[in-house]
Write a structure and sequence with these properties.
Layout: H1 2-33, H2 42-60, H3 75-89, H4 94-102, E1 115-126, E2 130-135, E3 141-146, H5 154-157, E4 166-178, E5 183-195
Parallel strand pairs: 3-5
Antiparallel strand pairs: 1-2, 1-4, 2-3, 4-5
Helix pairs in contact: 1-2, 1-3, 2-4
């Protein structure tokens, strides 16, 4: 019985922290939307984005369980948190996320060793991650995730791809943690999209 209670407490805490992250994403959107985006270069915008996000986080820090609070000395944790918030912001202020990545250097270009798949765009799903679906010529469906900024991300954020449109997607594979299934799953992560 005790294990069941602990399990439900864990699930509730996880769902609650997800809601808090959504609130932080919305507030970060509101904060950054007050900026003159055209007057800022990408590094200044990144700095302002970080300040807006931390301002919102500090307002809601008490809503995070003790073991999920940020350690400001832990760069990897801070970067991961920033990526999670930016991913959630795609739903509320896509233009800001696009602007954040606009002037990234050539290291963000598609790697030559990235895999690719050609097929028909078959919609998207927002769950643990923003996932798009592609059906190739053999009728096999591929699920690919938006995790980082890439050159043509605006095709997704601005919904410029229509169902049944032919596209080519470049990706690499990584093991991502999926909270609902409580395990790491090999996932295709998009590095670029080209409309045919």
């Amino acid at each position: 019985m005790r294990k069941i209670v602990l399990f439900f407490l864990f699930i509730s805490a996880h769902a609650f922290s997800q809601d808090v992250k959504e609130i932080i994403a919305k507030e970060t959107c509101e904060c950054t939307s007050k900026l003159d985006l055209d007057a800022l270069n990408s590094s200044d915008l990144e700095l302002k984005f970080g300040l807006c996000m931390l301002e919102s986080y500090n307002k809601h820090i008490g809503e995070f369980p003790e073991n999920q609070r940020l350690d400001f000395q832990d760069n990897a944790q801070m970067e991961k948190f920033g990526e999670e918030i930016a991913l959630k912001m795609l739903e509320f202020c896509t233009e800001i996320i696009s602007k954040l990545g606009e002037n990234h250097d050539d290291s963000d270009e598609v790697e030559k060793n990235d895999s690719s798949v050609k097929g028909i765009y078959n919609g998207f799903l927002i769950d643990a991650f923003y996932t798009i679906f592609i059906k190739d010529s053999n009728d096999k469906t591929f699920e690919l995730v938006v995790l980082d900024y890439f050159k043509n991300v605006n095709l997704i954020t601005n919904k410029l791809i229509e169902n049944s449109q032919e596209i080519e997607v470049y990706y690499y594979e990584a093991d991502l943690f999926y909270p609902k299934s409580n395990k790491f799953i090999s996932t295709k992560i998009i590095t670029d999209i080209i409309k045919k």
